[in-house]
Design a protein that fits this description.
Domain RPN1 N-terminal: 41-121, 152-355
Largest sheet: 4 strands, mixed
InterPro entries: ARM-like, ARM-type_fold, Proteasome/cyclosome_rpt, RPN1_C, RPN1_N
Helix content: 55-70%
Number of helices: 50
Oligomer: single chain
GO cellular component, one term: proteasome regulatory particle, base subcomplex
Shape: elongated
Number of strands: 15
Keywords: Proteasome, Repeat
Mean pLDDT: 75
Domain 26S proteasome non-ATPase regulatory subunit RPN1 C-terminal: 1039-1088
């Protein structure tokens, strides 16, 4: 019985399925319903060809209702459109036969517009494939004439053509979303065609003015009709969660401003946020700077409408116009809430390193008000932020008073807490769950030195690690100073460099200078400068105690110690802005150009100039530039030519730091004049590129603002001029991801000047041998340098011998010429270093844009394989610029391979790049690679020294800091940080003359780039840190996604303060606290939710739990539902 029952059950199921499925005719594959629909549509098509208006109206109504019902939700081609496609040409002929005054003509045109969405494309393809088809020709003749004529076939835009002749009052949304998308795409192409036709007409000189005016009026009428359609499509897309499509259409038709003006576009707060996020991402890919600025300005206005003031401040910083920052501060409102908003914006400004309001090339026309600005500078807000202190000053007298009034509460609020205090709180044991302290084996030994080991540090040989690598005593001590400075950066004390006096002693002198600064005095000359200057990194951001600690060193009789002490004063004030101007007051005596050389030698002046520049990096202060100007323009022989240029180069670099990203005309003119003068006499100096970099820093991220300067630098001929122009271009477009400039850098990298030189030399020698010349290098025309001439002369002797032994033998002559060309070694290697700049510039331009950085990483493989040696040397640092403090596995593996390269310069660049990539991360994998490198290169002093520096960078700040210039969800790029890293990376072009030589103190230029990589929550009411639960995970791209998608993945819950990696994102997990900003980085102000809000949040949570339980219950089999319902009831009781 059971078996027969089982057999009947499948049969019964098949019978039910057969009855439920509609019958399909095997001949045409149509069901009865489909056949009925097809016949009804064909009948309507036949009626549409008649002349009776009532019959035509009935036919059009049948077509409209059938199409509308099927296109309301489209997942495939609707059946009415499929059945009507063969009749499309006939319907077009029927439409063309209607008189222009027919009232039903617009309705007919609307239906044809919908049919053209599918049938029009096929008709256009058919017309292109078979031009002899009569029906196609007749259909083409029936199209609307004189409308949007362009170079393309009008069939490709038939959907738009018919819609423009349709009913303008009809609701286009009734045809479905797919129709809207098709129409939007054709509108964009039609508008582009109109712009192209206008441009062509402008190029052609119109002799007939009346004809030109008529053409312009017709074009304006077409544009007006397109714009009316645009303002129908965009509100529909906005109301149907298609914000990205609406924004794309508005950008293509240059109507982005309508988002702010309204024009029927209604958006709620959530839609505005999605639109702004999409605009910010689109800005990275807009080639035209005007379009980019328009997108950013629209996003700024929408954020202000949404009262998202911190997000508006992010956009204002991205725009780079000081007036926009002031506008956001003024819009924050009054009262406690307004003060809290400005406070949060101040933290953002501090993290960005923004120390000015209303200063820059964009407002150069207000220079006449500069005198009034000096009086108002003190009134402008001085903000101490999460990582830096921001000084704000206004340019215009009209805006300065408003800025001071708007930011007045900030000064009192921020002065209570500084970065040093935040760093101290973050460094407190257990503050971040014990994760801040690296494993003991991960740090170099010098970071863990005890007092007993410190006393024995002066041995002849010092092993910094138990890996067999050894350095000479002086080089080991120098490396120890830098490593200890990096590891204990911002911590205020170090077991090796400096032990602060015990509590109760009034000064360091009470403990004895020799005891407190014993390590400083145990070094040789260069080591003393580095050891004393390292105190500034230990006291980084501490503008209260930091400048006081090295004061005894500035009174020493040793110039190197005095120089190091002066450098430490400026380093401790990096990123701070105080009314006292401590750094300026303490360094004024050393920077004074009229100070006696005996009391202030060159080494002290050079260190003091660099210290002053780092202390006021990004401030844009004219008084600091005036202090540096005498060194930039002066070439006094009393200091010696080398000393004068060294001071000029350091001062030029310092001026670039002070005015980074301002495009200040006075500064750029000063640096340009000095650089042009130095090209002829000092282009071979190790610091020449630092002087060129100073000019580039002034235009950092300013794009086209550097075009005039680039044009004037065309006068500098030769490889030196090209090198300067490439460096300036890279700085001007740093972090923008500009594709055209990146291609320019790639073209320079793809050249082979050395091979071209060899080929040219070979041909010259072949010609000389063929002419019977005995000394092909006698005239010296092919030699660019003395070494090349000598090589050519030797080659000429070989060629002459070959000619004498085998006169007239072409093969022997060719072999001799090839040998001679190879012996020439390609000319002066310095002439090819413009390629190194180009490769490095590729990373600088792409560092702020994710897609561009990925493409650079791919291109790096080709550059390493096919590039010249000058390109290969820069590839490691190119990768590092795209991955600062972001040790990705692929990048680390590539750098590890290059660090074992046979060419010393490439290996050294790779080692330095490994330190930059892992800076402040305590990456164990990278630390292990560096320990292995120390053993692998143990016989090379230079390599081991760089390995130690890289180890110190990886453990920088004991894992609490970052070098990455990207912040605020990777939307903003800190110009000061880019300048700091670039000044160090540029040293790789001549490591022996800079970091491995006398100018190793350029490593201190990294100081402005360091920031705590933390998220710390501060109570907005009490200004005290509060522990708040946050979820930290990998950021997920949510641009263009509807609803509220998850923004992080793979997250973990931490209690603030917590550490964040380069690509992490955080969100508050505790509903009892509400942040005042949407991006949780640095210092975040939070407010405790009201009790009513807590109750509603708890109720909402309960509702979600109950809904989830109900959903789970619905999926349970019926026999278990009763059991679970009983259990749920018992739980409620």
């Amino acid at each position: 019985m059971s078996s027969s029952g089982d057999a009947k059950e499948p049969k019964a199921a098949e019978d039910v399925a057969a009855k439920a499925a509609p019958a399909v005719d095997p001949e045409d594959g149509l069901t009865d319903e489909d056949r009925e629909l097809k016949e009804r549509l064909e009948e309507a098509v036949a009626k549409a060809a008649g002349a009776d208006a009532s019959v035509l109206a009935s036919a059009l109504e049948t077509l409209r209702s059938s199409i509308q019902e099927s296109t309301s939700s489209m997942t495939s081609v609707p059946k009415p459109l499929k059945f009507l496609a063969p009749h499309y040409e006939g319907l077009k002929r029927s439409y063309a036969a209607l008189p222009e005054t027919e009232a039903l003509r617009p309705s007919f045109s609307d239906i044809l517009s919908v049919l053209a969405m599918d049938a029009g494309a096929e008709a256009g393809a058919g017309a292109g494939a078979d031009e002899d088809d009569a029906d196609v020709k007749e259909g083409a003749a029936a199209e609307p004439r004189g409308l949007l004529a362009a170079a393309e076939a009008s069939a490709t835009r038939e959907c738009l053509e018919f819609k423009l002749t349709g009913d303008p009052a009809a609701d286009i949304g009734m045809w479905g979303h797919e129709y809207i998308r098709t129409l939007a795409g054709q509108v964009g192409r039609a508008y582009e065609a109109l712009l192209e036709s206008e441009a062509e007409e402008e190029e052609e000189e119109e002799e007939d003015e009346e004809a030109a005016e008529a053409a312009e009026a017709e074009r304006d009428a077409k544009v007006d009709r397109l714009m009316a359609l645009v303002h129908q499509i965009s509100p529909y897309c906005m109301s149907h969660n298609a914000e990205a499509e609406a924004v794309d259409l508005l950008m293509e038709t240059q109507q982005l401003s309508s988002l702010v003006e309204g024009r029927g576009i209604k958006m709620d707060a959530s839609a505005r946020s999605r639109v702004c996020l999409y605009l910010l991402r689109c800005a990275d890919f807009l080639g035209d700077e005007e379009d980019q600025h328009e997108a950013l300005h629209v996003a700024l206005a929408l954020y202000l409408q949404n009262e998202q003031f911190t997000d508006a401040a992010r956009v204002a910083l991205r725009i780079g116009h000081p007036g926009q920052v002031r506008r956001v501060l003024e819009a924050c409102g009054d009262g406690e809430e307004g003060e809290a908003r400005r406070l949060q914006i101040g933290y953002l400004l501090g993290r960005h390193g923004y120390r000015r309001i209303g200063y820059g090339a964009a407002e150069a026309e207000d220079d006449e008000d500069e005198g009034e600005d000096d009086d108002l500078a003190a009134a402008a807000a001085t903000v101490v932020g999460s990582a830096l202190t921001s000084g704000m000053r206004a340019v215009s007298a009209a805006g300065a008073a408003a800025a001071a009034a708007a930011a007045a509460p900030l000064h009192a609020s921020f002065s209570a807490r500084s970065t040093a205090e935040h760093m101290e709180a973050l460094n407190r044991p257990g503050a971040v769950g014990g994760t801040w302290l690296p494993e003991p084996d991960a740090l170099p030994v010098v970071a863990r030195l005890s007092d007993e080991v410190k006393d024995a540090i002066g041995n002849a040989q010092l092993s910094m690690h138990d890996d067999g690598a050894r350095l000479s005593s002086a080089r080991a001590n120098l490396a120890s100073s830098y490593v200890s400075a990096f590891v204990n950066l911002g911590h205020g004390r170090d077991a090796l460099l400096y032990e602060p006096p015990a509590e109760g002693s009034s000064s360091a002198a009470a403990e004895g200078e020799e005891d407190v600064f014993k390590w400083v005095h145990s070094n040789n000359a260069d080591g003393r400068l580095a050891a004393a200057g390292a105190l500034g990194l230990i006291h980084l951001w501490d503008h209260e105690e930091g400048p006081i600690a090295p004061q005894p060193l500035t009174e020493s009789a040793d110039p190197q110690i005095v120089a190091g002490g002066a450098l430490a004063v400026g380093l401790s004030c990096v990123g701070t802005a105080t009314e006292a101007d401590i750094a300026k007051e303490l360094l004024d005596a050393f920077v004074d150009p009229d100070a006696p050389r005996k009391t202030c030698p060159t080494v002290v002046r050079s260190a003091s100039v660099l210290s002053l520049a780092l202390a006021y990096a990004g401030s844009g202060r004219a008084d600091v530039r005036d202090m540096l100007a005498p060194y930039i323009s002066d070439t006094r022989s009393s200091w010696g030519k080398d000393a004068a240029f060294e001071l000029a180069a350091i001062a030029a670099l310092g001026a670039g730091f002070v005015f980074v990203g301002t495009a200040d005309r006075d500064t750029s003119d000063l640096l340009e004049a000095r650089l042009t003068e130095a090209c002829a006499a000092n282009s071979q100096h190790p610091l020449f590129r630092q002087m060129a970099l100073g000019l580039g820093l002034v235009f950092m991220g300013q794009g086209a603002a550097a075009d005039a300067t680039l044009h004037r630098l065309e006068a500098v001929a030769g490889p030196t001029g090209r090198e300067i122009r490439l460096l300036l271009t890279a700085c001007a477009y740093a972090g923008t991801g500009n594709v055209l400039r990146a291609q320019e850098m790639l073209r320079a990298c793809g050249e082979h000047p050395e091979a071209d030189f060899r080929e040219k030399r070979r041909k010259e020698l072949e010609a000389d041998v063929a002419d019977g010349a005995t000394g092909p290098a006698a005239d010296g025309e092919g030699a660019d340098t003395a070494s090349a001439s000598a090589a050519g002369a030797g080659a000429g002797a070989g060629a002459g011998a070959a000619a004498a032994s085998a006169a007239g033998a072409a093969s022997s002559a060719g072999a001799a010429a090839s040998s001679a060309a190879g012996a020439s070694e390609g000319g002066n290697p310095r002439d090819y270093q413009y390629q190194t700049i180009a490769a490095l510039g590729l990373g600088i331009i792409s560092m702020g844009e994710e897609l561009g950085a990925t493409m650079v990483e791919r291109a790096a493989e080709h550059l390493m394989q096919y590039g010249d040696p000058a390109v290969r040397r820069a590839v490691p640092l190119t990768l590092a610029m795209c991955r600062l403090s972001d040790p990705a596995y692929a990048t680390i593996d590539t750098l590890s391979k290059l660090s074992h390269d046979a060419e010393p310069l490439t290996a050294q660049s790779a080692i330095l790049a490994m330190g930059l990539v892992g800076a402040g991360t305590n990456n164990s994998r990278l630390a292990g690679m560096l320990r292995q490198l120390a053993t692998f290169h143990r016989r090379d002093q230079d390599h081991v020294f760089l390995v130690r520096i890289a180890q110190g960078l990886v453990a920088a700040g004991k894992g609490l800091v970052t070098l990455s210039p990207l912040h605020s969800d990777r939307v903003l790029v800190r110009p000061v940080a880019v300048a700091a890293v670039l000044s160090t990376a540029l040293c790789s072009l001549d490591l022996s003359g800079t970091l491995l030589g006398r100018h190793h103190s350029l490593l201190f230029c990294l100081a402005p780039a360091f920031l705590p990589r933390m998220v710390m929550t501060v109570d907005a009411d009490t200004s005290e840190p509060v522990p708040v639960d946050v979820r930290i995970g990998t950021a997920v791209e949510t641009v263009g996604q509807a609803g509220n998608p998850k923004t992080i993945t793979g997250f973990q819950t931490h209690t603030t303060p917590a550490l964040m990696n380069a690509r992490d994102r955080a969100e508050v997990a505790d509903e009892a606290w509400k942040p005042l900003c949407t991006v949780l980085e640095g210092v975040v102000l939070v407010k405790r939710q009201e009790l009513a809000d807590q109750g509603s949040a708890a109720a909402a949570q309960d509702d979600r739990v109950r809904a989830a339980a109900a959903s789970a219950l619905a999926r349970v089999p019926s026999r278990m539902a009763g059991i679970m319902a009983s259990a749920a009831g018992a739980g409620d009781d």
